[in-house]
Structures are given as C-alpha cells and as structure tokens.
Amino acid sequence: MHIKSLTLRGFKSFASATECSFSPAINVIVGPNGSGKSNIVDALAWVMGQQGAKSLRGEKMQDVVFAGTSTHAALGRAKVTLTLDNSEGLLGIPSEEVTIERTMFRSGGSEYALNGQAVRLSDIQDLLADAGVAQEDHALVRQGRVDEILTANAEQRRDILEEAFGIHRFRQRASKSERKLES
Ligand code: ATP
Ligand code: MG
C-alpha cells in the first residue's frame, strides 16, 4: 500500500486546489521556510482522522481552514482528499484504489467520505487501524520528535519503545484493572 496522491483545497496555506503526487518509493518535499511543507504533513494526518488541534499546530480545529492573506479572501471550508493504492488489498475493501476525504466548515464539524460515500470517523479509523496505520503510532514522526527521543531519559525511552511495539495499550489496560481491584 502507498499514497498515490494528496489534494488540498482550502487547507491551511493552500487556498486553491493543490495535488501532490507520490511514487511508491521515497518521496521528498522541499521548499523554503514557511512554504507549506509541514502543512502537507498536517493535511495527511488530518484526512486520516487526527482530532487534536495542537497536533495540527493550531489552537482550534477550524484553524486548518485557509484564513486569507493580503491578496486572497478567507475560505469557508477545508477539504483534503487522500488516494491510496490498495492493489495488494491491505485495506479491507475490494477496490484497487481507495480515496478518503475529509471536509471541515469554518462553523465546525467534519464530514468524511470513503470512495465517495459518506462515512463516520470511526469507519476511517477502523479501516486504517486494521491495515496497521494508526494515528498514535509512529506512522508520522514530526519535527522535534527526533530530538525528544534523543534527549529522553531511560523511563521515557522505554515508554516510546513500548508504544512502538504495541504493548503500551496492554500496560494501560493492566493498570486500569489494578486500580479497579484496589478500589
Ligand atoms: P519550515 O521549513 O520552517 O518547517 P514549512 O514549509 O514546514 O516551514 P509550514 O509550517 O507548513 O511551513 O507553513 C507555515 C505557513 O502556513 C505560515 O506562513 C502560516 O501563516 C501558513 N498557514 C498556516 N495555517 C494557515 C491558515 N489557516 N490559513 C492561511 N495560512 C496558514
Ligand atoms: Mg516545517
């Protein structure tokens, strides 16, 4: 499975429709500071269902909608379309190509679509998690995260490794049960 394309419309600094095409190999996005490279990565996290405004480097969720510049008026909605190659069938739906789309209006609230059909956020989350692509994992390593790992102490580093190995959840569940037994 690989990303075929990502199209941004009214998302952050991308006022007009901008399509980024990706190859199955390594892809590199280059550009001057402030040109929108991280906004493209934000769009990828956002279309996959990211819920935290802070994780998207904003104050509130609506901050992803193009806010306007001296030459362009602000827009009323942001829309991102992700097209994935599913020729290996890793995503549990029988189509060679899968599109996931998220729309948000300035008034708030998100709409999701899977291959053009309206779906719930949980449908997108389940689809991706079943294919091993989960938000909380390490599919996206953000700016600053590498420093965080390098400067972590032993305990923090163990936390990072446990999360990567997928045992973090089980430890959380175990301590929840322990607390229940104690009370
Ligand atoms: P660097 O190389 O410094 O990491 P970058 O290419 O990653 O830069 P981004 O952080 O993606 O740059 O883009 C920042 C730009 O996006 C800023 O100029 C900011 O004003 C603009 N921007 C962010 N959100 C919005 C929005 N909602 N509407 C319009 N512009 C926005
Ligand atoms: Mg950046």
Question: Could you please describe the fold and organization of this structure?
Answer:
- It is found in: Cytoplasm.
- This protein is α+β, with helices and mostly antiparallel strands.
- It folds into two domains: 2-130, P-loop containing nucleotide triphosphate hydrolases (Rossmann fold, 3-Layer(aba) Sandwich), CATH 3.40.50.300; 145-182.
- The protein is 30% helix and 21% strand.
- The chain is built from five helices and six strands; from the N terminus they run ββαββββαααα.
- The chain has helices at 37-47, 121-130, 145-151, 154-165, 168-182; strands at residues 2-9, 18-21, 77-85, 97-105, 110-114, 117-119.
- The termini are far apart.
- The model has no long low-confidence stretch (mean pLDDT 90).
- The structure holds adenosine-5'-triphosphate and magnesium ion (MG).
- The site of adenosine-5'-triphosphate has 14 residues, from helix 1.
What secondary-structure arrangement, pairings included, does this model have?
Elements: E1 2-9, E2 18-21, H1 37-47, E3 77-85, E4 97-105, E5 110-114, E6 117-119, H2 121-130, H3 145-151, H4 154-165, H5 168-182
Antiparallel strand pairs: 1-2, 1-3, 3-4, 4-5, 5-6
Bound molecules: adenosine-5'-triphosphate and magnesium ion.
Residues 37-38, 143 line the site of magnesium ion.
CATH class of the largest domain: Alpha Beta
Q: CATH superfamily name of the largest domain? A: P-loop containing nucleotide triphosphate hydrolases
Structural class: alpha+beta
Shape: globular
Average the pLDDT over all residues and give the rounded result.
90
Q: What is the straight-line distance between the termini?
A: 46 Å
Helix percent reads: 25-40%
Largest sheet, strands/sense/barrel: 6 strands, antiparallel
- The proportion of strand residues reads 15-25%
Secondary structure tally, helices: 5
Rg, alpha carbons:
18 Å
The CATH topology of the largest domain is given as: Rossmann fold
Bound molecules: adenosine-5'-triphosphate, magnesium ion
Which residue ranges are poorly predicted, with pLDDT under 50 across at least 5 consecutive positions?
Answer: none
Number of strands: 6
- Please trace the helix and strand order, writing H or E for each element: EEHEEEEHHHH
